[in-house]
Amino acid sequence: MTRPHQMQPVALEEEGSGFPNGARSDRPDAGPAAEGGNGSGWRRAARRGWPIAATVVVALALGGAQLVLDARERGRLNQLRSVPGVLAAVDPSTLRELWSSESPGVATGANVGGDLVRGVASPDGSQLVELLDGGSGGALWSAPVAPPDPNLAEAIVTVGPWFGPRCQPVPDRDLVWCTVEDEYPVLDSDTAWSEHGRTRTVVLDTATGAVVSDHEIASAGAAAVLGDALLIATTAADGAASVHAWDLRSDQPSWQSALPKSEEGAASGGTSDLEPGALQTTEAVWITAQGDTIVVHGHRDVWALSEDGQVLRTFPFGDRQAYVQLLRGQLWSKLDYSAASTAMLSLLRADGSWTQPVAEQPVSLAIDDGSAADLCFLSGRARLRAVDCESGAERWDEASSESTSGLLLDGTLYSATRTQVTAMNASTGELRWRSVRDATLSLSSEQVFTDGESLFVLEYAPAADGDSGAAQGTTDLVALSMADGSESWRIPLTESSTYSSLSISELGGRLAISTTDEWGDSHITRVYGSP
Predict the structure, then answer these.
(1) Structure pTM?
(2) Closest by alpha carbon to 177, among 205, 196, 197, 141?
């Protein structure tokens, strides 16, 4: 039995492989492992193949690394764009006006699941709530909430357009709640707006527009929503305040809480000091939901309540005009408007005392991704401060513009004024960059928006000399790099016009710009995005 030849390694070569004339030997001992074989041609071929193989390996490694980086960046952007208020990717090559809508007077709108809900007072004095599709502007439904009112109609003609119902979404619920003012008396003056006779809170289903519940609010009362509860705060003539909670989807009461007066509030009485014989009126009360906490502002006291109506804290303020706010759901702040031309801010210490008041205000975070979660931000006196949200202790203090709004993303605090946009390390206060803007061209003031890749501001672009087609100039959307603040691009959105107010908001990832003309006769909403 013939023993088979031992298997040999083979290198596949073209001409110049090391074998004479490019020929390959069929001899079993021609390979390097054959005893006595030279193998030099095979080794030369292998050496020439190593750089090619190495290049391929490096290219594959770099390509794979780039794919990983791209995937990580996509994941980062997707995560950022899930933060409320962040726009979808803005592509200047495809961005255009998707739709616009004009309504009489000052219509107030809110984002409900990417669609626009707004209240309108019609010329005949009727009032309605409508839901517009965020992508097309088409009406999804329209719900009447007050019948025609000849007194309101006369007031609209005589004095001017009227505010319609003011609506807000119920967080994490398929509901919207609206404050409706109706039953107007006969207008007795052509110089003043008429006072409404009744205030109601109407809850509607966002899918159909059907009215789910309807509650009347007592004079000088106020309403808010927390979870599944409609909260109505009222106050009596003696200053005694209370909160009633109702199930949003029914007329069933959930709980009631009487709010105790502080010693200071009880000593000062329930109403303001009045001249002898003057008519005593019920003092107004105001209620808000701040995170999971209910805050009620009375005339002499402010109360903090739990979700089930338990009184957590009472803040006595006496005659001071003060507003209490829970910063980032953790730190109590007090803005006192009574003593100076500017508001004075104090923070609540752990021992229940307030810090010395200073001329500054909390920075309102229009977008907050939860980074630097232990810090609260304050602005004033040309300074920006960060304090510990639990203790109120100062963490850093830096010179800055006095912007009272900002965006917090990826540990960076972005803020804007009419003259500059800045980016600061939220944890240390270190300035990352500053972009100086022309104050005479700025339209968005302290408002700045982002899609996670760029920051956006609005600026007025004057018409070029001799350009009769754009006599009023244009309103431009300006994109700034989030890395260094440099201008990346700008595109005109619309011809500029005169208006009394302008606001910018996010609507289902799209950019919504609302303006009211200088006389308050017309309200226009324009929505921009990529088809």
Answers:
(1) 0.79
(2) 205
